[in-house]
Specification:
Blueprint: E1 2-4, H1 10-19, H2 29-38, E2 42-49, E3 52-61, E4 66-73, H3 82-95, E5 101-103, H4 110-118
Parallel strand pairs: 4-5
Antiparallel strand pairs: 1-2, 2-3, 3-4
This protein binds coenzyme A (COA).
Length: about 140
């Protein structure tokens, strides 16, 4: 079952992101999660099986494109279509707002790139530039 992440599951989601290798010391996943749940243009979708949080995806749009973040499936539930279903639900959520979706995959995450390519995502001829605004 894919639902908006219930607030009482926030700690479970952050634990899943740590376990899935998605967190970095310079980011604050709790704050990322709060912003996504509180903002008008974003949410976090979750797959819940019984008592267990099995997967998540953060989804949001900037008025032009949609973005996916924090896609994670618990280790013991992978390769059963959970990730594909989460991306499908995120795309459906976005399609009501914007015509395009994209995401960033870290250079060292060939597995995630392989997963997204299976789902029909293609590499874009674009260099992503960024800088921090919080002085960290
Ligand atoms: C990437 C991830 C979300 C995939 O979830 P999953 O539930 O195992 O994926 P699914 O079972 O829905 O797989 C969907 C398709 O992708 C393929 N696939 C899954 N993992 C793959 C991989 N590592 N490499 C290549 N293809 C892969 C599956 O074979 C399947 O193909 P098919 O439906 O055509 O047979 C999961 O491995 C994960 O949580 N990884 C760690 C976190 C991460 O890297 N997130 C992405 C950050 S950008």
């Amino acid at each position: 079952m894919i639902v908006p992440l219930p607030r009482e599951r926030c700690a479970d989601a952050v634990a899943l992101w740590h376990a899935a290798g998605l967190t970095r010391p310079w980011n604050d996943p709790d704050a990322d999660l709060r912003r996504a749940l509180d903002g008008p243009s974003s949410t976090v979708l979750a797959t819940i099986s019984g008592e267990h949080l099995v997967g998540t995806v953060m989804v949001g749009h900037d008025g032009h494109r949609g973005w996916l973040y924090y896609l994670a499936v618990a280790d013991d539930h992978r390769r059963r279509g959970v990730g594909r279903a989460l991306v499908g639900a995120a795309e459906e959520w976005l399609a009501a707002h914007v015509p395009k979706v994209q995401l960033m995959v870290r250079d060292d995450n060939a597995a995630a790139a392989g997963f997204y390519e299976r789902l029909g995502y293609a590499r874009q001829d674009t260099v992503v530039l960024g800088r921090r605004l919080d002085g960290r």
